[in-house]
């Protein structure tokens, strides 16, 4: 029997209104976009200034309570930062229980992740576009205080940088390293994604302009991140390990194929 595809329910916060044909609400798609994004942009409000704050952060979807859960299951987002940063301090002031349950509601946050797969160049500047995969999550952030869960999150995030990197480093982390690392767990309330893929497209009026067709190039410029050759540190004594080279090769191959597939109009998250 096929596995049921779970989706974030549409509500006033996450429903995509413009170009809603590009909208995706499937948990697996949204979580995969987040987990393959090297930098997440996290927005929150502080009581000390009138403007929202947006920070680039490292994070990863996961579940401490259900470590075998896959990307299609409900997950939390773990964010990594310095223990006394502005965001950590602001979140700390939100870690009091609500009136009904006594459980911490947490600090409201918005998390954005995006990948650009190509530049779509058309006959007119109005219809130029990107091929892209993007998602926005809304949720409530609380501090992770349990040391076992904190170590779980640190390992999860480390292995998101390079798979299997955690066990190839000096373990366990020192008490000072654990104490200076802040981990936030975001309980996701809702989310949605938009994915756009395809070739150039122009309206009939412009397509009937022979002079323009003869003088203007149209098409897609594929874009994809690549990793260069590993560069050893000044004190390195070992050969580049397989977990690094294999990841770099897979990263380059997968990203290139994603970009080319998007240019052909194949709409997918990975």
From TrEMBL:
Source domain of life: Eukaryota
Pfam family, one: Pyridox_ox_2
InterPro entries documented for this protein: Pyridox_Oxase-rel, Split_barrel_FMN-bd
Protein name: Flavin-nucleotide-binding protein
Organism: Cylindrodendrum hubeiense
């Amino acid at each position: 029997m096929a596995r049921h595809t779970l989706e974030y329910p549409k509500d006033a916060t996450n429903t995509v209104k413009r170009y809603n044909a590009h909208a995706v609400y499937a948990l697996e798609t949204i979580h995969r976009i987040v987990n393959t994004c090297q930098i997440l942009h996290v927005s929150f409000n502080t009581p000390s200034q009138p403007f929202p704050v947006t920070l680039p952060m490292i994070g990863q979807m996961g579940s401490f309570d259900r470590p075998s859960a896959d990307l299609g299951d409900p997950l939390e987002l773990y964010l990594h930062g310095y223990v006394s940063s502005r965001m950590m301090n602001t979140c700390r002031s939100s870690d009091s229980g609500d009136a009904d349950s006594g459980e911490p509601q947490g600090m409201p946050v918005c998390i954005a992740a995006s990948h650009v797969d190509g530049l779509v160049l058309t006959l007119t500047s109005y219809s130029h576009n990107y091929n892209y995969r993007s998602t926005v999550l809304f949720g409530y952030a609380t501090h992770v205080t349990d040391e076992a869960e904190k170590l779980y999150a640190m390992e999860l995030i480390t292995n998101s940088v390079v798979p299997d990197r955690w066990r190839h480093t000096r373990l366990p982390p020192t008490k000072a390293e654990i104490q200076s690392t802040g981990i936030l767990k975001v309980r996701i309330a809702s989310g949605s994604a938009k994915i756009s893929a395809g070739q150039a497209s122009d309206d009939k009026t412009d397509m009937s302009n022979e002079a323009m067709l003869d003088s203007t190039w149209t098409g897609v410029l594929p874009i994809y991140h690549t990793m260069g050759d590993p560069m050893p540190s000044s004190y390195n004594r070992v050969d580049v390990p397989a977990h690094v080279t294999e990841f770099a090769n897979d990263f380059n191959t997968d990203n290139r194929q994603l970009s080319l597939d998007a240019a052909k109009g194949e709409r997918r998250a990975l």
